[in-house]
Amino acid sequence: MSPSGRFLERRVLAAFCLIATFALLPVGGPSQAHEGATGAVKERQQGMIALKEAMKAWKTALESPDGPKPDAIDAIAVRLSENAGARLLSLFPENGPTRHTDAVPEIWTDWKTFSRLANDLEERALSLQKAKADKVVLRSEFQTVGMICKACHERFRKP
Description:
The protein has seven helices and no strands. Helices cover 71% and strands 0% of the residues.
């Protein structure tokens, strides 16, 4: 394949990943399952909203004509990492609640995969601080984080 063909193929893949990421994120107000949520369920819902907002801010930063500002990328990295890894896992206690949530029971039966995805998200978020001035790396990381979110939602979230 020619270099221009590979470039186009990567652009199409990137566009698909972005569309898929945002298509899987909740839009507007809380779903019926979220009404009345308290405790860990409410905290993780708030964390998912924070992740969604961080991804939107990241996308905006990438689209900026001046490029992403290092301070903005630092803030996004912090927001993502605060809602990933051990923090996210702590909000899914063993035999967790099944009411007021879009989480599926497979989280607890396939904890290894779920925890890997949560930890991968944290690792990628922390790596942003190192790449904050490199727009190419930031775009690649954005796609990777989007794929992590997508994989987790497809496997561990009610449709």
